[in-house]
Amino acid sequence: MLSLRGLVFLALLTVGAILADRFEAPPWLVFILSALCMLPLGSALARASEDLAEHMGPGPGALLNATFGNAPELAILYIALQKGLLDVVKATLSGSILANLLLVLGLSAVVGGLRYKLLSLHPLGAAANMGTLTLVVAALLFPAVFAVLPSTGGQSMSTRIEGLSLGTSATLLLVYILSLIFMFRTHSEQLKDSVKLSVKVELARLRAHAPPRQAIAWIAGCVALVVILSDQLVNATDSLVDSYHLPPLFMGVVGLALVGNAADYSSAIQMAWKNKLDLAFRVATGAALQVALFVAPVLVIASRFTAHPLNLNFSPLEVLSVALAVVTVNAHSSDNAFTWYEGAQLLALYVIIGLAFFFY
């Protein structure tokens, strides 16, 4: 899964991160070292899940990829949830969507646009993902509207929002399953290569696949390390907020969100450099959809069995930011093409949103 050099690098980095946490190094150092470990771990975990998925068929394989491909993010978020850091959890979820739509797609368009004047998109694939992202905005908007409307009836507003969040989460999970059927069954021929949820699946064709037992062993080992390092990351984030008076929402939206799915960033940019922006677009929007349709609903439902139940009542700034990101990406992709200038605009919006959360 990793080369010998990569494995040695990961081992040294992991030992350094664990020792830094054990000997109470400055929280920024623990955060950086733990975050750096997540990059090769995320890559190795994705490759192992792809190898195992090859033996399971397109549908189950895609679900397996979604589960373990998002393992670092799920681990970080669930540990933060267990510690009662609900605002940080929500900020990380919204930040992951923003990072994929604006940062990853923006960088991909800029890098690809440096070599090619016009980068084309697959019309059906782009329209399907953007339509689903519009649904995501609606799912975030209604709980936020509930929170500011006057309460009617006998139930408290918090009870109503929790019920709405559970029902919405179940609906989003259903939409996620339907999206797999759409991509891998009913319209796989029309979408062709753009059905891939991760560009690393496309690259995996060029290498030999590990046998199932070896892939399972790698998955187990990577997940164990991810859990340990995620706990360190969350604790370091909490310490950074207290020590340096950083806004918790900013640390979630920018800090933890970038760490959770950083493994996909370089792959998307590499594809754009090879004039395959359609694949990069599918990676960016597909990763955002996995967070919204899979990770967030799973956390909302799983949190009902913890002491800190999570709902979909995001802050107005988070809902506004996600809505603006979806509208902007939709506007630029409506002609099924991108240029470097449009990518630069996405990056500019990401910076502006980051500044808004920092000064919030």
Describe the structure.
With 360 residues, the chain is mostly helical. It has a single domain, classed as Up-down Bundle (A middle domain of Talin 1), CATH 1.20.1420. The protein has 15 helices and two strands. A two-stranded antiparallel ribbon has the order 1-2. The protein is globular and about 65 Å long.
Summary tags:
360 residues, mainly alpha, A middle domain of Talin 1, 15 helices
What is the count of β-strands? 2
With helices defined by DSSP (H or I, 4 residues minimum), what is the helix count?
Answer: 15
CATH topology: A middle domain of Talin 1
- Integer tally of domains: 1
Mean pLDDT: 81
Task: Write the CATH architecture name.
Answer: Up-down Bundle
- Secondary-structure element order, N to C: HHHHHEHHHHHHHHHEH
Distance between the termini: 42 Å
What is the CATH class?
Answer: Mainly Alpha
Model regions low in confidence, pLDDT < 50 over at least 5 residues: 194-207
For the sheet with most strands, the description reads: 2 strands, antiparallel
The proportion of residues forming helix, as a percent range, comes to over 70%
Assembly state (oligomeric): single chain
Which structural class best describes the helix and strand composition?
mainly alpha
Radius of gyration: 20 Å
CATH superfamily: NCX, central ion-binding region
Strand order of the largest sheet: 1-2
**Estimated share of beta-strand residues:** under 5%
